[in-house]
Amino acid sequence: MDFKVIFRDSFLDDLERIVRRIADHNPSAAQQLGEIIIRASEGLTLFPERYPKVRQRPGCRRFVVKRHFKVFYRVQLDARTVEILRCWDGRRDTDPVL
Predict the structure, then answer these.
(1) Which stretch of DSSP H or E encloses residue 28?
(2) Is 56's pLDDT higher than 90?
(3) Is residue 95 part of a domain?
(4) From edge to edge, which strands make up the β-sheet containing 60-65?
(5) For residues 77 and 48, what is the distance between their CA atoms, to the nearest angstrom?
(6) How many domains, in total, are found in the chain?
(7) Nearest by Cα to 64 from 76, 55, 56, 73
(8) What CATH code is carried by the domain that includes residue 33?
(9) What is the pLDDT of residues 4-51, one digit of tens each?
C-alpha cells in the first residue's frame, strides 16, 4: 500500500526561493530542477524509509538531488503519510530549522 506525500508550506517556500534564484540565470534549468525535486519527493510513496535518518534531527530523513539540494522529510507510518518538510541548498553554511 502506498504512502500519501504531503508538501509542507516550508518546503514549497524553499523550493520557490531556489528555483527563482536559478531562474535569474537560466529559467529552463530552474524549471527542470524544480520538476526533478518534486518527482523525487513524490517517489517516496513507495518505500519512504529508503533514505537515511538525520542524526541531529530525530524522526527526519533526507535525500539529495543533483548533488546540492537536500530534501528533508518525515514518515508517519501509522497515518501512511510522508511529510516533505524542507528543501535546502547544501552549499549554504547551515541546515534548515525543521
Answers:
(1) helix 27-42
(2) no
(3) no
(4) 4-7, 81-89, 69-76, 60-65
(5) 10
(6) 1
(7) 73
(8) 3.30.2310.20
(9) 999 999 999 999 999 999 999 999 999 999 999 999 999 999 999 999
- Residue 29 to residue 57: CA distance in whole angstroms: 31
**Cα–Cα distance between 7 and 15 in angstroms, integer?**
11
| pTM attached to this predicted model | 0.89
Residue 20 lies in a domain: yes
For the chain, strand residue ranges (E) read 4-7, 60-65, 69-76, 81-89
The CA distance from 93 to 40, in Å, is 24
The domain of 53 spans: 4-89
- Domain-located, residue 94: no
Say if 35 falls within a structural domain.
yes
- Distance CA(48)–CA(26), nearest Å, equals 32
What cell does 49 get?
524509509
- The residue behind cell 534548515 is 96
Q: Evaluate the CA torsion angle 15, 19, 36, 58 in order and state its sign.
A: negative
